[in-house]
Amino acid sequence: MAFHLFPYSKETLKYELFLSWVCSNQVSVDKPLYRGTFHCFQSIIRQESMFGLYKGIGSPMMGLTFINAIVFGVQGNTMRMLSEDTPMNQFLAGAAAGAIQCVICCPMELAKTRMQMQGTGEKKSSSRKVYKNSLDCLARIYQRQGLRGVNRGMVTTLIRETPGFGVYFLAYDLLTRSLGCEPEDPYMIPKLLFAGGMSGIASWLSTYPVDVIKSRLQADGVGGNYQYSSIMDCTRKSIQREGWRVFTRGLTSTLLRAFPVNATTFATVTLFLLYVRPDDGPKDCEAAPGPHHAPLQQQVQPSSL
């Protein structure tokens, strides 16, 4: 699941760096390129230089602003429609936001995946590059396959993003309610960091198998060779070749990235909102009783899945 709060921070750069490792591990079926996270990191730098760690970074940069606007608007409006701040409503509002933002998320991740896969293991100077950049990647796909090609993996993206966002908001709501995060609490920041980090881990654990299939479907067809005809075909062939462990490929790297990125995001946003809205906002991480006081959880967006 790939979500951010601010246009492009250092945490976002680290996030995309990790995604490059995860994508390569998820889609390499017959002959895995990397034995693990460290070996992947080492191999990419040796074969493609440091720039290889940031392949496909242009696509997230283009889509983040629109994704943020959609998620904030949909999640906030859904909570207002539901009127009551409960854990279930937090899940439903997050799920609604996750589903609608797939319109941008799916093509963005398709371009990111294709950009990350091209030239894998080759020197940066290699001329065997199909796409110049993310826009060129989407334009070429559209010319060959139309809107259907640009939206390849949309169903799996929906299946991943909808419950992923829901679990993310639900987990953060439950953790902040149980821990308590009052401004006077000397341990408020560690609590926020823990709640945000664990929410990110919970979200990824709930949807990671779908993310593996989504990545394989979006990477399928590179070079004109298609292996999978559908989601079920991809799932069946993946299990036949690699067993059930296929659904954990790249999980270690994802979880290592998920905790610090989400912890930093939630803590930063919560503290910022408490600072800029000391009178209008809630006094802790739980819901405020009045209709004009939106809970802080509603102001925060998951960091990706």
> How much of the polypeptide forms β-strand, as a percent range?
under 5%
The sequence of SSEs as H and E is: HHHHHHHHHH
Number of helix segments?
10
Please report the total strand number as a whole number.
0
Amount of helix? 55-70%
Radius of gyration: 20 Å
Shape: globular
The parts where pLDDT drops under 50 for at least 5 residues are 1-21, 280-305
Structural class, by secondary structure, is: mainly alpha
Average of the residue pLDDT scores: 76
The major beta sheet can be summarized as: none
Alpha-carbon distance between the two ends: 3 Å
Walk me through this protein's architecture.
The chain is mostly helical. It has a domain at 153-249. It is 65% helix and 0% strand. The chain has ten helices and no strands. Helix 3 (58-82) runs antiparallel to helix 5 (102-117) and helix 8 (188-219) crosses helix 10. The radius of gyration is 20 Å and the shape is globular. Residues 284-305 are annotated as: Disordered. Solcar repeats lie at residues 1-81, 85-178, 190-275. One of its GO terms (molecular function) is high-affinity L-arginine transmembrane transporter activity. It is found in: Mitochondrion inner membrane. It comes from Sinocyclocheilus anshuiensis.
